[in-house]
Amino acid sequence: MMLVNGQWQDSVSALDRGLSYGDGLFETIRMVGAQAPLWERHMQRLAAGCVRLRMPAPDPQQLWREVQQVSAALPDAVVRVTLTRGTGERGYAPPKTSSMTRIVAAFPAPMIPAAFYRDGIRTRLCTTTLADQPLLAGIKHLNRLEQVLARAEWDDPLITEGLVCDQHGQVISATAANLFAVIDGVLLTPSVERCGVAGVARAAVIQAHAACEIRDLPLTECLRASELFLSSSVRGILPVQAVGDTVYAPGPVTRAMQRYWCELGFSMEQA
Amino acid sequence: MMLVNGQWQDSVSALDRGLSYGDGLFETIRMVGAQAPLWERHMQRLAAGCVRLRMPAPDPQQLWREVQQVSAALPDAVVRVTLTRGTGERGYAPPKTSSMTRIVAAFPAPMIPAAFYRDGIRTRLCTTTLADQPLLAGIKHLNRLEQVLARAEWDDPLITEGLVCDQHGQVISATAANLFAVIDGVLLTPSVERCGVAGVARAAVIQAHAACEIRDLPLTECLRASELFLSSSVRGILPVQAVGDTVYAPGPVTRAMQRYWCELGFSMEQA
């Protein structure tokens, strides 16, 4: 089910700037029935992205109504909201009077094996590295070729995610989730000031764990963590069982975050 | 006029990966009547981009037929060819069996004042800098937010282009054209191994001027050039009259390249 600018349709102009240049933003929102526990955070990030890309901010109430409409028939939905700068003249210059394109589409939530939450997932280290671009770091824009290339590095179904570094040997995130590590008893997550996406699930974890440090995380340091887990608005808190040949076990901080995720209203990941 | 996968239509699926992730490539081709003087170079770059993004290469003959169809009614057209990885499941992983989306759209060529070719254009220095990403440098992919941000820095109609540097103080290009400089009597153009687009017009200039050097070009060095010009498949050879307050005059190398452009078959820029 999909709405484009409030109309039931499944296509957009082939001249949309979202397609021509990736000129836009998106959010991927996990629903729990008719609720979206992280809704406010999604709307905050979307608004921040609009400021960064100098696009008019959307109306959250209108978006919420459309999210409800498209997901009404799905008991367990993921809704993607895409905002683009709309259509315009050919060329990079943003049109002076553009009307945004607003796509709200619902999908069935992915089936995630219970073992992933209980025992953790296997990951690999990607050779694709992320470029430093502070102008675009943090926001969830439509220029995602780095993530596509990183995810295309493997098709072994036993590998669920890939960790991605920047070009200085610092781990940034997984291809579609943020990363947390417990090192010397301290929870920390990589900075996303230069690259990476500031996930809404990441923000929820940071807020729930007041002592969480946000800083650069060299890969070598990351690999000696006592716990590693991923945060994702769609998949929740996923313990990391292995990065390549290095193995980990879900520990107390990971378990506490999984319990917190249930308290937020998500039900898919009872550990 | 527009063909999408060979059909006369002007829309694409709202789930196209070109829109979702910028997962694709494009070419912007200047026609001279029914001819495209730089066609072979466009097809070479498109094929190289497909290899880089691991997408199947298109059929150049099919594209050529479609370019002819969409531009037939326009005496002076610019045709944009866009190739995306098509639609797929939600998520970054490229679909195992994807059929590409192929958009071929014709536009009237832009009206460019004769004075631009005669006297040059005014440019500014953009504050937006380009990120180093060798995996994507050179190809003309759909992740163009850096160019959009750079082009959004000004709306003074007297400023035609903006020069963009990387994050190390090297000039790379204009927002939508490549840059050439004559320094100490030597023609040179910045390397696009780390960022920037390897323009087809740039390739034609390099081939025509055997002694052209391709290397890093510090901004400070660039600004003391005796000649500066831009190359663009759409706009041809544009002398740079000013970068901010620093002024230049079209010189003999620029004029020779403009004459060469006419020899290639382009008629729009008799200097």
TrEMBL record, chains A, B:
The gene is pabC. Its EC number is 4.1.3.38. InterPro entries: Aminodeoxychorismate_lyase_IV (IPR017824), Aminotrans_IV (IPR001544), Aminotransferase-like (IPR036038), BCAT-like_C (IPR043132), BCAT-like_N (IPR043131), Class-IV_PLP-Dep_Aminotrnsfr (IPR050571). This is Aminodeoxychorismate lyase. Coiled coil: none annotated. PANTHER family: AMINO-ACID AMINOTRANSFERASE, AMINODEOXYCHORISMATE LYASE. Belongs to the class-IV pyridoxal-phosphate-dependent aminotransferase family. SUPFAM superfamilies: D-aminoacid aminotransferase-like PLP-dependent enzymes (SSF56752). NCBIfam families: pabC_Proteo (TIGR03461), PRK06092.1 (NF004761). The keyword Lyase applies. Keywords: Folate biosynthesis, Lyase, Pyridoxal phosphate. Pathway: Cofactor biosynthesis; tetrahydrofolate biosynthesis; 4-aminobenzoate from chorismate: step 2/2. It comes from Dyella caseinilytica. One of its GO terms (molecular function) is 4-amino-4-deoxychorismate lyase activity. Homodimer.
